[in-house]
Fold this sequence. Notes:
Blueprint: H1 7-14, E1 18-23, E2 26-30, H2 32-38, E3 64-72, E4 78-90, E5 93-102, H3 103-126, E6 129-135, E7 141-144, H4 147-152, H5 156-161, H6 164-167, H7 171-190, H8 193-196, E8 200-208, E9 214-225, E10 232-240, H9 242-264, E11 268-273, E12 278-281, H10 283-289, H11 293-296, H12 301-304, H13 308-321, E13 325-334, E14 337-349, E15 354-362, H14 364-410, H15 416-424, H16 429-438, H17 441-466, E16 473-476, H18 478-490, E17 493-494, E18 499-500, E19 505-510, E20 517-520, H19 521-538, E21 550-558, E22 561-568, H20 575-578, H21 598-609, E23 613-619, E24 623-631
Parallel strand pairs: 19-21
Antiparallel strand pairs: 1-2, 1-5, 3-4, 4-5, 6-7, 6-10, 8-9, 9-10, 11-12, 11-15, 13-14, 14-15, 16-20, 17-18, 21-22, 22-24, 23-24
Helix pairs in contact: 14-17, 17-18, 18-19, 19-21
Amino acid sequence: MCLSDSLFAKLYESAPDAIFICEQEHVVFANAAAKQMFRLAPGEGSVAPLSSFFANAESPHSPMHNVLKKMRRVDGTEFDAALSVSTVTNDNRQYHQLFVRDVRSHSAATQEGHGNDARLKFLVENADVVLWVMDAKTLQTLYVSDAVTRLQGYTPAEAIEHRFEDTVADAALVDAIKQRVKQKLAEFEQDSRVSSEPQVYASFLPRRCKDGKTVWTEVISKYVRNPQNGRVEILGISRYITEQVMAQRELGEVREYMHTVVDVMPSALIGVSSHGMVSLWNNSAAEISKVPTELALGQRFGELWTTAELLAPTISRVMSTGNKEESFLMPILVDDEMRQFNVVCFPVMQRRQRGVVIRMDDITEQIAMRDLLARSEKMLSIGGLAAGMAHEINNPLGGMMQLSQVIKMRLSESTPANQKIADRYHIEMSQIENYARGRGIFQLLEQVVESGGRAGRIVRNMLNFARQDSSAFELTDILNLVEDTLVLAGNEVDVNRNIDFRKIAIEKDYDTELPWVSCDRGRLQQVLLNLFKNSAQAFTAIAFEPGKWKLRIGLSVLEHDYCIEIEDNGPGIPETNLKNIFKPFYTTKNKAEGTGLGLSICKFIIEQHHQGQIEVTSSLGKGTKFSIRLPLNSSPHHVSN
Length: 641
C-alpha cells in the first residue's frame, strides 16, 4: 500500500490523534501526532513492532472504540490513552488502523476549561457592576448577573420579570432610549455590516431600587446579532455612580452659589487672563460698562470697554510682579454722570497661567457724605454763633419796644408827670398830643412796636428750630407749626437767585376742626421749611409776575391720618427726575446750591421717625404737590440718625 502519494496520507498527517497503520505485527505508518506522542525519531515508527507501544506487550487486532489502554513511549514512560481499532482490506491484504488519544492531556484541558469557566462565573457574580443581556426588539431582559441583588435589591429572577420602563426613574429617558433602539434595529435590517462591527454606547440612567430609592448608573452597551437565533440583542454593563453624581451635583450647586454671590455683589468684579481675555464679568460690571456678561466673557478686555485703557498699565504691573495694587480713585462716566470708583487689582496665581481680578466700588456717595460732614461741622459752628447772636438781638429788641411805649406815653396828657413838665415850660400838653397825632407819631411808634414783635417772633422761631436735638414727641398744633414755619421761610431772601418767599401768594386751605398730633415738632418743622424753600426755588425758573406765584397749603384729616399738602404752580418736575427725587445725593442743582439730601432727609423723618408717608406728584408746566400723611396715634419710633 503506497499511502504517501494519496490524499489519505495528508489527512492522516494533519489529524490531532495519533494514528498507526499495521500489517500483522509491524507498524507500516505513523502520523506526526503519533511520533510526537510516543517520542519517535524520524523513520523509527515504521519499523517498530506494534507490541512495543503497549505497556503489557499486547497486540490488539479486534475492532474496538475508545477503550482505555496503558501505552508506553520509547523512553519507557507510560500513560493512559483511549484506543480505537478498525480493520481495512486492500489488495487482499489486511491492515489495522489504531487511533490513540492521550486521555491525561485531554482531561487536563477539560479541567482547565472548567476551571476557567468557574473563575469567569466567580468574577461575573462578584463584580461591582451588573452584566445583562436584553432583547433589542422587546426590551425584555434575558440575563442579569447576581450583582443586581447587591446593588438594587432585586433577585435576578425579579429583575428579569420587570419591564424596562419600570426600572428607569425618568419617563423622558425611557422614550428617548426606545426611539434609539428602534433606530438601531432599523440599521441592522438595512446594513449587514452593523452586526459585524458592533458600536459601544454610554449613557447615564436613574434606576429604581426595590426599596423605592433611586440610584444613578453609568450604562455601557452594544448591539449584536445572536448567531444561534439571529436575534438582535443588547449586551450591557451597568456601573453604579450615585456617589459621583451626588458629588457632581453638590459641586455644581457650590459653583452656582459662588456665581450667584459674585453676581449680587455691589462691587464690579472683572477677571482678566494673562492673554488679556475676560474670564469674569459680574452683573455690577455689566451695569457699569453697559456690556452684557454673555458678550463680555471670552472677549479681549482692551477692546471691550474704553475704561480698559486706563486700567491697562495697572493690570500689566500686577501680572508681572504678582503684587496687589492698592486702591486708587478712577472717574468713570455712568449714565451720563461722572462717578468716582475705588479700584483694587488682585493677582491670581494658577499653575498654568496668571491673571488679574479687578474690584471696582462706586464711592461717589461716600465722597459726597464726607464733604457734607465737613460742611455740617462748619454749619454747626455757624448755627451756634447764630443762636448766640439771636439771644443778643433779643435784648435790644426788647429795649426798643419798651422805649417806644415810653415815648408814646410821654407824648400823652394822661399822666401827671407829663403835665408837670409841660407847665414848667408853659406848654399845653393837649397841643403836644394833638401835634403828635397830627404828625402820625403814635402810628409810627405802634409800627416800631409791631416790627419789634415780629422780629422777636422770628428770633424765637429760629431758636425753636435750632433746638432739634431733643427728638421729643409732643402734642403739637400743626396749624400753628405751619404758620411759624411760614414766618421763617418769609425771612429768607436769596438776592443772587432772586428768591423772595414774600413774593409768593399763600393759599391756606385748612379744615375747620383740626386735632393736635403727637410728633417731633422740630423735625417736622424742618420738613415743612425744606418743602417751602424748594417751592420758592422752583419759581426762579419762570419769570416773576405779581400774583402768579402761588403756594397752596392744605391741612385736613382723612380717616386716621393727618394730611398736609404743599402744592405750587411752578414749572413741575420731569418724569425722569421724579422717580429719583427722594434718593440720597440726587440733585439737579449744582454743588454750590444743594447736596441732594434735603428730600431724602424729609422722607426719613416722615416715614422712619413718624411712621407716616410722603409722596410727590408733578405735571410739567402745571406744578408740583407734596402730600404728607401722619398717623393720629403716632408715637416715637427710635431710629438711627
